[in-house]
Amino acid sequence: MKLHNSYNDKHGANNKAALFILSGHKSNLGEVLCINNEVTEALGYEKNELIGRNISLIMPPSIGHKHTEIVLKYFSTARRIKASDVMVLPLHKQGYILVCSLIHRVLPNLQQGVQIIGFLRKISDFSEQFPAIDKNISPEDVAVLLTDDSLMLQAFNIKACRLFGVNPAQANLRKYVNAEEKINMKELIPQLIDEPFMTRVKVECQAEVWLNMGVIKNHVDVEMETMVQTQDDESLPHTPKVATDNDRMNRTCDRLDCRSANDGLIKGALSLLDLQYGKYGSANAEVSLKLIAIVVDHTTEKFTKTNDADNTFKCFKK
Question: Is the alpha carbon torsion for 260, 261, 265, 271 positive or negative?
Answer without folding.
Answer: negative
